[in-house]
Amino acid sequence: MGAKEHPKLDNVLYEAELTKLQAELVEMQEWIRSEGRRLVVIFEGRDAAGKGGAIKRIMEYLNPRVARIVALPAPTERERTEWYFQRYIEHLPAGGEIRLFDRSWYNRAGIERVMGYCTPAEYQRFLRQCPIFEQMLIEDGIMLRKYWFSVSGKEQERRFRSRLTDPMRRWKLSPTDVESLTRWEEYSRAKDEMFVHTDIPGNRWRVVEAEDKKRARLNMIADLLASVKYEHVQRPDLKLPKRPASTGYRRTERDLQHYVDDFAAKVARSGERPEKYVDPEDADRPTPDNPAAVLAPEAPVHRKRARLATRAMPPLSEGETAAEP
């Protein structure tokens, strides 16, 4: 079955609801911190399915000392000789912490399986051990949430093409990402087999329809909040003290210190009004309600900066090494 067709989500409504959900995320964070709980959230799915955007919105107002993103690069030579789960274990949360895994140990069931980065024996061992490993985490008190972001091939290709011309997101497109377009069915079969072994009672995958990024973000965050039975934490009533009287301190003279140039003043004097950057992947696309909508060929970045950024970015090469997607 294909993705459900929905009218475009009103941007004002989206921003308002996102702000409400982010406020609740802060409440959840405080409960986890005060109660010493541990939360692990796994983000998996197709390349360009919107995992990074969802993580960004979740983290926007959270305390980085409590909530952290785990996005590991390709394993080192030493790590390749370790037990597969070993390098992920050190990134698990302690009491009062949240960890958001932007890709996780499920790399073995996805990219490593499809691209031949692991042997068939290593893959089969992973399928046997993964449910046991995750059950150990759950039994030890870790709240584990697994989200799969689902997107169609047509929409994935549209997002890839936008990244080719968007200087702000060009870094997100690797040779491995490009090759995934030609291996769509192989990734689909790998995902289906992974679900057979790891989508089990008490530890289910939560599938996010990600054809529309904004809807996906709201749906995913709302589901996460509903899955954690947190409570409001009463915070101490803080009051700012009065500033004490001066004891004669004199501030250091400005000419004795090196100040950064007042770039903002130069911009204000120039009278230029650059257009605000808009993620082209969030731009309007043709829908049944708006068939005339089209994606701009380039993101509306200030032209001079866009040209400089484009020149500075080297083209993808065959020998370029990609981190784990």
Can you walk me through this structure?
This protein is of the alpha/beta class. The protein has two domains: 11-227, Rossmann fold, CATH 3.40.50; 255-312, no CATH class. 40% of the residues lie in helices and 10% in strands. The chain has helices spanning 11-35, 51-59, 86-89, 111-115, 120-139, 153-165, 175-180, 184-198, 213-227, 263-270, 303-312; strands at residues 38-45, 67-70, 97-102, 142-150, 205-209. The protein has a five-stranded parallel sheet, with helices on both faces. Helix 3 (86-89) links the parallel strand 2 and strand 3 (97-102). Helix 2 (51-59) crosses helix 9 (213-227). The longest helix has 25 residues, at 11-35. It is globular, with a radius of gyration of 23 Å. It starts with 10 loop residues before the first helix and ends in a 13-residue tail after the last helix. Mean pLDDT is 87; it is low at 287-325.
| Number of structurally distinct domains | 2
Overall shape: it is: globular
CATH architecture of the largest domain: 3-Layer(aba) Sandwich
Which whole number gives the mean pLDDT?
A: 87
What is the CA–CA distance across the termini? 26 Å
Secondary structure tally: strands: 5
> Poorly predicted ranges (pLDDT <50, ≥5 residues)?
287-325
**Rg, nearest Å:** 23 Å
CATH class of the largest domain, please? Alpha Beta
Helix-strand sequence: HEHEHEHHEHHHEHHH
The CATH superfamily name of the largest domain is: P-loop containing nucleotide triphosphate hydrolases
- Helix percent reads 40-55%
CATH third-level topology of the largest domain: Rossmann fold
Main structural class: alpha/beta
Bin the strand percentage: 5-15%
Count of DSSP H/I helices:
11
- Largest sheet geometry: 5 strands, parallel
Major beta sheet, strand line-up = 2-3-1-4-5
